[in-house]
Amino acid sequence: MSKMNAIGWFDIFVADMERATGFYQSVFDCTLEPIGDPTGEAQMMSFPADMSSYGAGGALSKTPHAGPGVGGTVVYFQSNDCAVEEARVADAGGQVVRPKFSIG
């Protein structure tokens, strides 16, 4: 099995996409691009990324299921099959909030 980076993606949840996009574009002197949300639930603007390069890509995300502030960032860990890690959650004292699902 090949090694992979621990983090594969991140979402920063926002309430005002236009304002947040302008803020991050100004701060990081970059252009965020719209991307489709695999779940169809969110409006997303992606930070520039080369998924074949070192590091993690990510996006601003506006969705009815989450918002900015405490808990307003999601980190996606890399895995060959997340059902394996998901099966360990309860024994480790955690709770699965959203079971494994396809993002296409």
Keywords:
24% strand; 2 helices; alpha+beta; 16% helix; 5 strands; 104 residues; five-stranded mixed beta sheet
| Beta-strand residue percentage | 15-25%
Tally of contiguous helical segments: 2
Radius of gyration, CA atoms, in whole angstroms: 15 Å
Unreliable runs: none
User: Which bin fits the share of residues in helices?
Assistant: 10-25%
Q: If you average the pLDDT, what whole number results?
A: 83
Number of distinct beta strands = 5
Report on the biggest sheet: 5 strands, mixed
What does this structure look like?
The chain has 104 residues and is α+β, with helices and mostly antiparallel strands. The protein starts with 6 loop residues before the first strand and ends in an 18-residue tail after the last helix. The protein has a 5-stranded mixed sheet with strand order 2-3-4-1-5. It is built from 2 helices and 5 strands; from the N terminus they run βαββββα. The longest helix is centred in the N-terminal third of the chain and has 12 residues, at 17-28. The protein has helices spanning 17-28, 82-86, and strands at 7-13, 33-35, 43-46, 57-62, 73-77. Strand 2 (33-35) and strand 3 form a beta hairpin. The model has no long low-confidence stretch (mean pLDDT 83). The radius of gyration is 15 Å and the shape is globular. It is 16% helix and 24% strand.
